[in-house]
Amino acid sequence: MAIIELKNVSYKYPLTDSPALKNINLQVNEGEFVALIGPNGAGKSTLCYTIAGFVPHFFKGEISGTVEVAGSESSKSNLHEWVLNVGLAFQNPFNQISGAKYTVFEELAFGLENIGVPRDEMIQRVNDAMKLTGISDLADRSPYSLSGGQQQRVALTSILVMQPKVLVLDEPTSQMDPIGTREVFGVIRAMAERGMTVLMAEHKVEWIANFADRVVALHDGEILLEGTPQDVLTSDLLVEKAFGISRYTSVARKAKELGLWKGNRLPVTLEEAMDGFAR
Amino acid sequence: MNSFSMYVARDSGLHKLHPLTKGLLTLLLLVSGLTLPGNWTGYFLVLLVITPLAVWGKVFRSFLRIVWGISLPFILSVVIIQSLFWGSGTPIFEYWIFAPKVEGALFAVISVGRIILVMAGFILFAMTTRPDTLMISLKQVGVPSSLAYIIVTTLQIIPRFQSKASTILDAQRSRGLETDGNVFVRARAVVPIILPLVLGSLVEVEERAIAIEARGFNSNKKETSLIEIPDSNAQVFFRKFFVLLMVLSILARIAWQLLN
Amino acid sequence: MRIEIRDLNFTYPTGVEALRGISLTIESGEQVAIVGQNGAGKTTLVKHLNGLLQPTSGTVHVGDWNTKEHSVAKMARRVGYVFQNPDEQLFSKNVGTEVAFGPRNLGMSAEQAERQIKDALTMAELSDKTETNPYDLSPTWRKMVALASVIAMDTNIVIFDEPTTGQDAASSARIANVIKVLRERGKTVITITHDIDFCAENFERVIAMSQGQILLDGKANDVLGQDEILATTYVDPPQLTRLGKKLGFKQTVRNEEEFLGELKK
Q1: How confident is the model at residue C213 (pLDDT cuts 50, 70, 90)?
Q2: Which of B57, B245, C154, C252 could pair covalently with C225 via S-S, beta carbons 3.0-4.6 A apart?
């Protein structure tokens, strides 16, 4: 059952000549984890904003085609209603802190205050969300005193607490150090395992290979490839178009040419690489 | 504590006052300082009203440090400008392009008093008022959410700007920009520091607008609040009284101008 | 131009002891990567090289200059520093002017500045964007502008602070290429990076820091093979190094060439 459906979506930002998205057709089923890859400028962020409604409601510009999430159509909705269905988090955790709240607990309640949730329910939902993402120990800290990884986890939790139907993440670990990356992926994984539908733009190919159900490769505003992580991430097409690929894949490809790769298919993860070389 | 807000948590009577009470008191001090006659009103209000309040609020030492740090550049520019540009009058001394006059110096002193009053008032307010409780209380009296949000986050912006400006300064110095030296050297350094600060902030502001929108900021539902702010009948009375005093002192000033 | 650091200690005004007894020599033309968890002191160390920070005790010499005796602006003649966030640097109306800022500050002659700027723009693949306003470019390209504006200063030593954060593969390759050209020109390149694969593929010497001290300092192959010690400062080994270990290679490998070399044996 498709919970996100884009049909023939094209979009041009205001005051630009070339479209950022060209004829995108995409379906995401409930509970699926879809990874979005592509070079910078390919349209990953634009696609994320489109599903989240900010294109075109916030950014204006020209859009054609239909964007549907959980039965509602973006063009027929108001942004303030749409955001309740689609949660959005992006790269820079610092800019996702409201700046109006003094503790993490209150920061998490910010969204619920805005939509008029009664106080008792607010407290319950915030506690539950913190437990789910493992940040209960940060409740009394000031959001600005946290590390990048902690801030990003707070940002994710503050979206989760709104109970969206779908989660859109635009490169959530791009600016994290290794510890932060691990923490953030941990939270995302926990949410995915609970059945949340996730669309995530990401460069870290190895992680995608382990957790994504499907990978969509975007290039120059169009969908270049779509399929399982195995199929997409080892495709020669990615090399042709200068995508970043896993070093395991790249070295195995070269080893294959030298007759030193013994696996059936090219690897994406460490385990697959070990397997293929060790035989 | 939170190094990006001027708020300093203390267990003091001043902290426990309702945000609007403190806000209106600050405005009252400002208005009185600017409308009441006398050259030294600014200084009086700072010494006799604001300073005791700072002591009550248990923030006196940091308050002093911050007020001095922020006022100093303004004070220096006022003094310099008055020395350079005051027209006719009784000269104090003459050196190169600097020819301060008694009248100019007096004007500078009055202005400095007002500058310190404004700075001290707002800084004490920011130091003893939680931005979020201020925002809630503003919304409760009908201030639109977006305006309340802007006011509150602006209070947090000053320390944030300082930290950013410092990084920008480092980056530009590393590109050979001289910052130590005479006035002209320092003047040349202003644009390479201010522009990235402003331009970079615009990028941040857009992202933050998206982030709060994503958390229902523009929802048309009636808002609720996590925190309940303590208030009292006495404070309600005083707030009305402060507004009355402000109006009266403005009227008195207008009347005085008309009669003279 | 050699960098000589002797017994460097640095404590921040807040009381945090960020560097403890660091002694280090970097010879002219070396390519050094500094890795380690956030808070280890990497940026603090590197900020001493151009005088942004002054030692609490100990000395830092860049060539014959003691950093205590020269302003940061003066040190900029020998040490270029590319900061992590380009938005904390860019302010000119177009890319060309922005890249000219550094050379102009250093008082280069018009012809020399012209040459340097052109060269830097070519290296950063910005030659076709000189009239564009930096803020009209994507964050990826803004980073290249910031990089070009430091390269144009033609300093003997160039420091990169997290050059590949947020960049895609093509951009990382571009930056790797810039580093290669700098190496060929005999420049000393020092980088702070969390991207351990980028580090492994482009730097011959790796210094791992933790809690204000140097844990490991040596040839990349040696340092990157020491999993356990690296793990204490939250550094994962590069992908190919890990794979090589699992496959039982005798030598530690750090790039495709070395990996395939070992595989053939």
Answers
A1: very high
A2: C252
Reference A197, options A167, A160, A219; nearest CA is A167
Q: Would you list the DSSP string of B217-248?
A: TT--SPP--SS-----HHHHHHHHHHHHHHHH
How many C-alpha atoms does A157 have within 13 Å on its Cβ side?
33
Average pLDDT (C74-78) is: 95
Considering the entire predicted model, what is its pTM?
Answer: 0.83
Instruction: Give DSSP secondary structure letters for A154-198.
Output: HHHHHHHTT--SEEEEESTTTT--HHHHHHHHHHHHHHHHTT-EE
B192 touches chain C (CB under 8 A): yes
Q: What is the pLDDT of residues C149-206, one digit of tens each?
A: 999 999 999 999 999 998 999 999 999 999 999 999 999 999 999 999 999 999 999 9
Radius of gyration of chain A (CA): 20
Task: Look at residue B156 in the predicted model and tell me its pLDDT.
Answer: 65
Mind listing the pLDDT tens digit for each residue in B26-35? 999 988 888 8
pLDDT value of residue B2: 45
Alpha carbons C231 and A171: distance in angstroms, whole number: 25
pLDDT at B13 over 70: yes
Tens-place pLDDT, residues B41-51: 888 888 888 88
Which residues in chain A touch residue B213, judged by CB atoms under 8 angstroms apart? Answer: 54, 58, 79-80, 83
- The secondary structure of residue B47, as a DSSP letter, is I
For C65, the 3-state DSSP assignment is strand
pLDDT at C232: 94
What would the two tokens of residue B155 be? 């209070």
What is the Cα–Cα distance from B72 to B61, expressed in whole angstroms?
17
Chain B environment of C47 (Cβ under 8 Å): 170
B contacts of C54 (beta carbons < 8 Å): none
* B215–A contact, CB cutoff 8 A: yes
pLDDT tens column, B117-173: 888 998 999 889 887 788 788 888 888 888 888 877 776 666 677 888 889 999 999
Helices then strands, counting H and E runs in chain A, come out as 12, 10
Which whole number is the average pLDDT over A205-229?
93
Q: What is the mean pLDDT of residues A78-107?
A: 92
| Residue A57: partners with Cβ closer than 8 Å, 6 or more residues away | A74, A78, A79, A82
Q: What is the largest CA-CA distance in chain A?
A: 66
Report the distance separating Cα C153 and Cα C123, nearest Å: 13
Arithmetic mean of pLDDT, A216-226: 95
Contact B174 C90 (CB under 8 A): no
Please state, in angstroms and rounded to a whole number, the distance separating the CA atoms of residues B188 and C16.
34
Q: Where are the alpha helices (DSSP H) in chain B?
A: 13-16, 19-35, 41-45, 51-56, 60-85, 102-128, 131-140, 145-173, 183-213, 233-259
Residue C5 identity (one-letter amino acid):
I
Beta bridge partners of C9: C57
Q: What is the mean pLDDT of residues A20-39?
A: 95
Retrieve residue C174's tokens.
């571009």
The torsion defined by the Cα of C262, C263, C264 and C265, in degrees rounded to 10, comes to 60
Determine, for residues A159 and B214 on separate chains, whether the beta-carbon distance falls below 8 Å.
yes
Are A39 and A245 in contact, with CB atoms under 8 Å apart?
Answer: no
Angle between helices C169-184 and C110-123 (to 10 degrees): 140
With a CB cutoff of 8 Å and minimum separation 6, the contacts of A253 are A239, A261, A266
Q: How many residues does chain C have?
A: 265
User: What pLDDT is recorded for position B256?
Assistant: 83
Nearest CA in chain B to C81: B174
